[in-house]
Amino acid sequence: MSKEKEFVVTPWEVRGEIDYERLIRDFGTTKVDTELLERIKKDAGELHLFLKRGLFFSHRDMNWILDRYEAGEKFFLYTGRGPSGHTHLGHLVPWMFTKWLQDRFGAELYFQMTDDEKFLFNQELSLKTTMSFTYENALDVIALGFDPKKTFIFSNVEYVKTLYKIALEIAKHVNFSTVRAVFGFQNTTNIGMIFFPALQAAPYFLPSVLEGKNIPCLIPASIDQDPYWRGIAREVAPKLGYYKPAQIHNKLVPGLGKGGKMSASEPETAIFTTDDPDVAVKKIMSSYTGGRDTAEEQRRLGGRADICPVYHNYEFLFVPDDKELKKLYDDCKTGKMLCGECKMIFASKLKPFLKEHQKKREKAKGMLDKFMVKD
Amino acid sequence: MSKEKEFVVTPWEVRGEIDYERLIRDFGTTKVDTELLERIKKDAGELHLFLKRGLFFSHRDMNWILDRYEAGEKFFLYTGRGPSGHTHLGHLVPWMFTKWLQDRFGAELYFQMTDDEKFLFNQELSLKTTMSFTYENALDVIALGFDPKKTFIFSNVEYVKTLYKIALEIAKHVNFSTVRAVFGFQNTTNIGMIFFPALQAAPYFLPSVLEGKNIPCLIPASIDQDPYWRGIAREVAPKLGYYKPAQIHNKLVPGLGKGGKMSASEPETAIFTTDDPDVAVKKIMSSYTGGRDTAEEQRRLGGRADICPVYHNYEFLFVPDDKELKKLYDDCKTGKMLCGECKMIFASKLKPFLKEHQKKREKAKGMLDKFMVKD
User: Fold this and answer.
1) Alpha-carbon gap: B177 to the closest alpha carbon of chain A (Å)
2) For the residues of B130-185, what is the DSSP string, one character each?
3) Which of A160, A174, A186 sits opposite B160 (nearest CB)?
4) Which of these, B206, B198, B186, lies nearest to B232 by C-alpha position?
5) Quick one: CA torsion of A153, A157, A163, A169, rounded to 10 degrees?
6) Cross-chain CB nearest to B120 (options A172, A180, A375)
């Protein structure tokens, strides 16, 4: 493997330039192909931009879930968030897609805030802090327009009485060797982190436990979270008599730095939903791009849109119109448009997006009670 | 070490003839000596039979707890039970002593039912079963006469929302190497068991968390449970800013078989509080004793009271009168009294004890609400 191709993708670390084709092979998932897209389009009545643009690129058992759905059986959605800080654009991607799935398939959503995990994993974070980010992040989820009747957001710490019983059933079937192999845990890993995968997996079975019958589960989430369901949920589900959860995985939205995903630990390269729009624009102006060393060189050789985080943000989030996207791509590649101009365009799209989201986020403060479930 | 001296004492296994002097050295505890007994007598106003007879033989920081008490500071008691089956006489011993401590020192008691642990540890037990034994065992605790205003009995599963936050703080300071060394956990140990010591330790700090100030804790319990506080609570307490819990340890009440402790896993050698008194008497009649192979030999050589579980039951529970105990001992050792006669005496003491306890246990069914705390 050449040095350029080195990358790491785990639930706690994403580094390097990610080869998504290789991830599919390494993780043993299946590529989202044209046939599956057609089927989703038929069942959903339309195709979400994230599917058209290949952002959701990998899956497990999607055809099985659609078999069930087409046979009149309901499924539920599960996804979540590790509340270690404010929400950034990269977090919104799977949630926006989840919202679309809820609308199109009439599915209930269980949304897990792993405030326990983030406390256990990060020496710097207090439990009080991660629990407060549970609520901050929940505002962003609610702002996306989920149906309060069908959406259950919970903090692990505040919902543990419900989750713990299921987690115990899971934990009885998972030993240290397994979590060492799946998550790379060491002898120095704290015993809270070692147990956490059992609690993380509990929501997959929660609706089945609550309703007393097996209900299929679909998990839309970033590919880096895959070890949880590959190594734990899918292994244990049959032993407990539950369905294995199906999954659909998105690529990681790149940050404004070079390589990796948008990460809260590099705040200058991440656009937070709580950023003042003018601050966000400043981050854009300092963004890494696919530009050349000099304007002259770029006019001559063209920019490298394919490795440019600004372009990926257009592709994934901000330019749904295909023609407009193609023009931006071509203007970059031909050297017609330089990075400064392009960043201005990005800023002009981001600012109203942020303002609108922040308005909805403010409104969400009065709706927390409708969405949050506790013991 | 000679073969006869081989023994094992862990929270999950007690085997062989226990050398208590060696346990004190191995575990690093302190012997309960005459000086400490005098001090307890002064503070409590009397000395409990279990102290006089050396059943509570080992401790940690008892003088520190009494310093605090004498300085007018209150302490609380913590003990518990792994509800894997019905309560037997061996379980009652630390609880009876705990009741005496509550009365004499006016202390609140937090009583933990580790229904999660017993489920995780035992392949045969369902969570439903261990949770139902939580309530069965609680009846025995209540039957001993604890003060409902000062006694808080809880199931880990039903009180986990309160305990989990504290357990997370503990777990962050305990890694796999530590629990492997302290409890002998392996790579094949399930991740629930690996986390459990953190939840087990949570009640030591619970009153301090609830009241927002440091409150000393005294743990009366069997010596086999020592690893929990030696390896976990005492190590972590200073890191979280809490006092280390003090402890006083009892010897294990022998079962009616040879060696080891009274154990629910050998029901024919254990007298359960729920046993029909006539069934209990039959168990006594089949008990292992310190008797000789033939009556002739026993008349000639005398019995071996010192290794006889029947005699130990007199010593620890059923014969508080020193003169009566001495007569039983002498009559055995001189061969004057054979085992059959002695067992009849045991039966005559056990039957009314069981009947009385069962009456109180029945009454306790109406009092569960006063004692059980839940989230």
Assistant:
1) 5
2) HHHHHHHHHHHHHHTT--TTTEEEEETTTSHHHHHHHHHHHHTT-BHHHHHHHH--
3) A160
4) B198
5) 140
6) A172
User: A191 vs B176: CB contact, 8 Å cut-off?
Assistant: yes
B283, B271 in Cβ contact below 8 A?
yes
Identify all chain B residues contacting A375, using CB atoms and an 8 Å cutoff.
161, 375
Query: B175: alpha, beta or left, given left = phi > 0 and alpha = psi -120 to 50?
Result: beta
Best of B154, B168, B173, B240 to disrupt the A interface (most A CBs within 10 Å) is B168
To probe the interface with A, which of B122, B162, B186, B191 has the most A CB atoms within 10 Å?
Answer: B191
In A103-252, DSSP assigns E strands to 108-113, 151-155, 217-222, 246-250
B12 by Cβ neighbours in 10 Å (0-12 / 13-18 / 19+) ranks as middle
The structure's pTM equals: 0.93
> Do B254 and B262 form a contact (C-beta atoms < 8 A)?
yes
| A129 within 8 A of A80, measured Cβ to Cβ | no
In three-state secondary structure terms, A260 is coil
The number of residues in chain A equals 375
Please say whether the beta carbons of B114 and B344 come within 8 A.
no
Tens digit of each residue's pLDDT (9 = 90 or more) over B61-104: 999 999 999 999 999 999 999 999 999 999 999 999 999 999 99
Closest CA to B277 of B340, B345, B342, B356: B356
The first and second tokens of residue B54, run together, are 């050396």
CA A289 to chain centre: 23
Residue pLDDT, tens place only, A274-285: 999 999 999 999
